Amino acid sequence: MSTDNTEDFRRAEVARINSEATVRAELEKRYGQVWDTTQLQEDFSVMGFLAPYVSVRRKSDGKEGTLSFQHSPRFYFDFVS
Fold it and tell me: What residue numbers bound the domain in which 65 lies?
């Protein structure tokens, strides 16, 4: 059995992000580009989820990175390569 050394941090981030869940326009002010689920699928290949992060590969250039996401409304934001 493997240990997830990031679990406590990720749980805190899930709670923080979802307690501050907001509309798309506000996320765009904070983080720049924001994707809904359909847009995410158009621009990225998803490699895995580890809430509140998703590991992705950008289709336009193959660059790998992560996005953060909020649960409801579901938006993805803050791409970091």
Answer: 7-80
